[in-house]
Amino acid sequence: MANLTGKVAIVTGSSRGIGRALAERLGRDGAKVVVTYAGNQAKAEEVVATIKANGSDAISVQTDLSKLDDIRTLFQKTLSYFGQLDILVISGGAPRLTKSIAETTEAEFDSVFTFNAKGNFFALQEAAKHMADNGRIVTFSTPYTVQPQPNLSVIAGSKAAIEAFTFALAKEVGVRGIRVNAIMPGPTTTDSFTSMVSAEEQEQLKQMAPLKRLAEAEDIANAVAFLVSDDAAYVTGHVLHATGGFA
Fold it and tell me: Which CATH class is domain 8-242?
């Protein structure tokens, strides 16, 4: 377990799924956590209560990553309440769009890229402005950036942009000791994933992975916990594959 005592972390999209597992893990490791949610405040407050019960502090902030004002407000509230920012994990993302290039509408394209690429870019911008020296940033990629699949091009393209921003920022803020990495999670059995992906497709994905199982949210949280720990002190500008061999 990493020692994050005295650190303050923002974890976006952390009222459920992978984000929730991340927020709770960083809280157990000693970090004070800002839990963000899109619409379900009750779920976010459950995460806050869990973190507090485990001995750390937490607050919740409603945030829509597609809105620049929301992103700036998130960082302002974090600094106002906790006085510092040491860790940013941008989890979550646009809803899974499964359409061919030929069928994708302009509105669908804009929706995905606004939330994923634009949202991540300006969250990274705020972190670059306000994060303490020796901070840690983790973004989220997808296996489809290296293993393209039909009907997932828009998601893959938006996540490829996130990877590019990650690599660039790692070079820009490295002089301040800030490490910037991405995590590439394999298919993960969150509620949102299982509601969108049929049981047949889930089984197919299991067979594609050498470990013959899908990830649990805690598997991804453990990998991110490594990236923000001192054990990864010389890791930056990197995409860590937590895919079970899927990619």
Answer: alpha beta
